[in-house]
Amino acid sequence: MSDLPLTSLVSYSHFVAEALDRATIERSTVAVWSTSPYAGVAEGEVFFLQGFRLRLREELDFEAGLITAYGYEVYQGEEKLYWYDDFPHPNDRTLAATYPHHKHVPPDIKHIFICFQWTVSHLPASNFEVAPIQLRYWG
Q: 3-class DSSP state for residue 3?
């Protein structure tokens, strides 16, 4: 994988292409495009051979080298297993370690949240890696 994928549209596009070049991936609709000289979006779905599907959207700031907003949803068939997002829930103290980043889990998937296994300062270089790492199907 690229060392600094969030420095430009070209470098992040290459990073995504490398991430999707896995034997465990059947196909993908993920596209990366520019919304300005310093910003972009990555959006689409990744279909895994095992029947899992990752739906993602990332808002990218190439000048700051950050993903400024994101959502990752993981499905098996049509069943939504869990999702990650950065929508703030400031009154939930259990999320303080990774505020506002969290994962929604069953049985009440809209109302049960857990922290990532990383603290905010130790998140992967790109959030694009988070959900696939969780699935453990990235080759």
A: coil
